[in-house]
């Protein structure tokens, strides 16, 4: 576990801090200002709890049952019951990093002093995260409205010492045993605290923040792979000139074109489109690579803006205002986050689609301008990368299905009290799958482009650019072998995927080009 410490409550939480906690095991501390804010807000809740007037979440039931006033003698049971009843998830377990992200984001909101929980509740959540205890959260149970209810409920259940959780080694055990071993006392919930632990967009936001980080790396990776494909196809880099992109001033497009131009610097393979098989222009998948990847980059910029706004929010219902008022609201509705999660899935699908078209062009002897069929050693005896493209095509088709938006599919719940929901959790889950698929698609293109560049440099009498040579050498070092007779291909493709996913592709290119966008 990384011993980097993230302090909650002294200033705004950053996306890097969320990822550090979720993926790297960073430790968490509550700032004294956060503890004081928690105490102040709790005082307002205690004052309201002592009055006869019903207050939602403090002295009433929940959702469609909010019409019932709950007396003081039943309020602790009320808070326990909402956690137990809402911990109703089903299906496979959600990844550890997702659970840690949603718990940390919930803690961030608790520490804002807008939810009314006691400091010891927030501290218990920090302690659970710091000891590596991870509640078992299931795939299904959130509609992305009234918060990610079931996922957060399973986390709250662990704080109560109930349900199941993973230990630091990933072994699932009773949560009560894990808390006892860690010296953490189970939380006895009081007024509003059960509700406050459940009512946020934390799961979908955590997945959005991690997807944004992953996609930033993948957009750069896609530019590098596209540049190698352009080299292998003897394309022209003149279409990447900055002045051409300046007259259509989309920032992402310019960034992608600049990346490709850096990777292609010094190449002896570019610009031969007028030789043996003259072309006035390269195909769209090559010539328009910056336009497609650039549109995705601009989509990512918008998604990050939404994510940062949500990260600055304190989402709960009711919410404690600075003047002591406790007001109901609809800020838990996940629409802003759900829309950009869906939008990113569209961008990922289209980027994968154009990458697959370049791969297919590399393998087709009728369109590859002199490369051997399927980049095979002895075509006919060897099939080369024929089926690698099949795998890539299957992934692209899956990505297209994942691009169908979840956020337009509302289904009423809670006896029509919650009659419009965001489905943001579902949008986030499919985006995670799409990011994985995109990594594989880019890995296949890179593997094909690297082989094609090597084959081309043997026959063209010219060498690829220094960046391409560095990438190919690093890819081979990572275990993806070069041209030759047919062999068991899956390990090579897996190595190429890992090379992309880990950031090693970007690092190899940047060792020559310097920083890429």
From TrEMBL:
Keywords: Cytoplasm, Histidine metabolism, Lyase. Pathway: Amino-acid degradation; L-histidine degradation into L-glutamate; N-formimidoyl-L-glutamate from L-histidine: step 1/3. It catalyses: L-histidine = trans-urocanate + NH4(+). There is a cross-link at residues 145-147 (5-imidazolinone (Ala-Gly)). Signal peptide: none annotated. Its EC number is 4.3.1.3. PROSITE patterns: PAL_HISTIDASE. It holds the Pfam family Lyase_aromatic. The modification 2,3-didehydroalanine (Ser) is found at residue 146. GO terms for molecular function: histidine ammonia-lyase activity; phenylalanine ammonia-lyase activity. One of its GO terms (cellular component) is cytoplasm. It is found in: Cytoplasm. It comes from the Bacteria. GO terms for biological process: cinnamic acid biosynthetic process; L-histidine catabolic process to glutamate and formamide; L-histidine catabolic process to glutamate and formate; protein homotetramerization. Contains an active site 4-methylidene-imidazol-5-one (MIO), which is formed autocatalytically by cyclization and dehydration of residues Cys-Ser-Gly. Gene3D superfamilies: Fumarase/aspartase (Central domain), Fumarase/aspartase (N-terminal domain). Belongs to the PAL/histidase family. This is Histidine ammonia-lyase. It comes from Streptomyces reniochalinae.
